[in-house]
Write a structure and sequence with these properties.
With 112 residues, this protein is of the alpha+beta class. The chain has a domain of 69 residues: Roll (Nuclear Transport Factor 2, Chain: A). The protein contains 3 helices and 7 strands; from the N terminus they run αβββααββββ. The strands form 2 sheets. It has a 5-stranded antiparallel sheet. β6 and β7 form a beta hairpin. The N and C termini lie far apart (30 Å). This is Lipoprotein. It comes from Echinicola jeungdonensis.
Length: 112
């Protein structure tokens, strides 16, 4: 039986979100306020955007995907890295579990 890679990626995202955290990769006061990704190799330039500003290719792929379409989209950030643009989307499930996924401008899931 052939598995759809999107389901496998979704499962991986859930496992990562549910796993115990070792150390703190974010900076901020007590988990509140703006969180920034610590990166030594590359420069990230995140910019919070309105959900309506998400490119149509990404919105279309999220809506047609069985996993992501069952989640609530709660936040979106536009990230510029090495001259390319990516979109970091934050979803929540019915139990308020946070799931994050990063997409390129063509609507494909990527790992930064």
């Amino acid at each position: 039986m052939k598995k759809n890679p999107i389901y496998l990626i979704g499962l991986l995202l859930i496992l990562v979100a549910c796993s115990p955290k070792k150390g703190n990769q974010f900076s901020g006061k007590g988990g509140e306020g703006q969180k920034t990704i610590a990166s030594s190799n590359s420069q990230f330039s995140p910019e919070e955007i309105l959900l309506e500003e998400i490119p149509k290719d990404i919105s279309h792929n999220v809506k047609k995907d069985n996993f992501f379409s069952s989640l609530d989209l709660v936040n979106a950030k536009k990230i510029k890295k090495e001259g390319k643009v990516f979109y970091d989307l934050t979803f929540e499930d019915e139990e308020s579990l946070t799931i994050m996924a990063t997409f390129n401008e063509n609507g494909q899931i990527v790992v930064l």
